[in-house]
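User: I'll paste a sequence; please echo it back and then give the predicted structure.

Assistant: Echoing your sequence first, then the prediction.
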Amino acid sequence: MRNRMMRAARLVLCAAAAHAPVSASAAGWDVSKASSNFELVTLGDAELSGRSIGVIHMGNVELTSGRIVAADPLAQPDRPALARTVAPGDYPVTLYQAFGRIAAAGMRFAEGKPDHWELAVLPGQDLATLKDDDADINYYDDVLAADLDANKGHYALHRPMAGKRGNVAVFWSGWGDGFYPVFWGLDKDGRPLALLTDFGVIENADGRREPKVQ
């Protein structure tokens, strides 16, 4: 979804406190059609490069509580954490670039190829009732901008409280402001292996041809 370009970076993965089996679908959500880019998390850097997809290994997000928020904190400062949690720990974040944009973002919790994917939801959300269009000081200028400047304004690992564990991965979201689906990649036992946010910049995990605007 290409809405108005956003001025501030999108904070997508937060430490302490943002959408499978592909065969599973809800009344309004067919997860197999929600994203064609799940393969991104299974490909190595060389394979991705061959598909004209750049890779940025941002470093680790320190999940002190095991809860994850996927949101723009400047627009949604009270956004709740995702319903599913993981074990507290340090987990690597990878950004996938194409056409000069951040096409997708992933976080890895364990090695392996996901057996199936699940739409990430907030507490109280019911997959059966979700529709396709559901997915709410100036901190940016005064704080985040300095961190982002080190990487041409595209991304940063930001630590809200200096000297304390718990940081956030901040990065631009695709073509700008909008609603983007987040997915859990699960093993056959339902254990989280990866989290993927798809910004709708590419299709079929391939950056050689830009998708048509819907």
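The first strand starts at residue 10 and ends at 14. Residues 10-198 form one domain.
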